[in-house]
Amino acid sequence: MSYQKGLQSFDYQSFDEVLLCNDSVYGPLYPLENLFTQMQESPCDFWGITDNTDMGYHIQSYFMLIKSPILKSQIFKEFWQNIEVLKSKIEIIERYEVGFSQAMINAGFSPSVSTTFQASFFQKLSIFLKKFTPQNILKKLKSFREGRVKLIRIGKINATHYFWKALITTGNVPFIKIELLRDNPLGVDIKEVEETIAKHSEYDVTLITEHLERMGKVKL
Description:
Elements: H1 2-8, E1 17-21, E2 25-26, H2 33-40, E3 46-48, E4 51-52, E5 58-59, E6 63-67, H3 68-71, H4 74-81, H5 89-106, E7 111-113, H6 121-130, H7 134-145, H8 159-162, H9 164-169, E8 176-177, H10 178-182, H11 193-200, H12 206-214
Parallel strand pairs: 3-7
Antiparallel strand pairs: 1-6, 2-8, 3-6, 4-5
């Protein structure tokens, strides 16, 4: 409910744009100026950095900019008024992350993203084969028990996890998901995270490693 409480704390309708962002990512790995410059001319009503088709098309909510037409709409107001506390992460994603994008699109508002990454056939095949190692099967079952993934989603591809490296090196995505480095629920190869960030960004990687250590994650 953090976004709801934030929106209740000020007169958001008086602004041209409102940025919703949360603490589920590390970054920014690059200055955000280029991102905003790129999206300034986009003919859309709301935009984010990445999108996803898991459980329905949606803009991923870790970084999402909402423009005035939506801010002044009744559908936006009603959506946030009806937010409830939910215990399951999957239910939160379905009802509020996917639900927000779908509600805005159904109301006639147009979405956009700054980065679109399409996996090739061979990339998808490689990911599919890697999913069925004993280690990865155990990881997925653990994530399923903890309510962080649905069985029907195990076959899906989340670009911010599976293609984190390409998104940083070629997609100019200025963030990396904390869940990927802390839990790695999909069993992705993250051995080169520190080297990749250090090579392609001036971001202080020790901020990541020290935070992971505080959470009990000793080594990437």
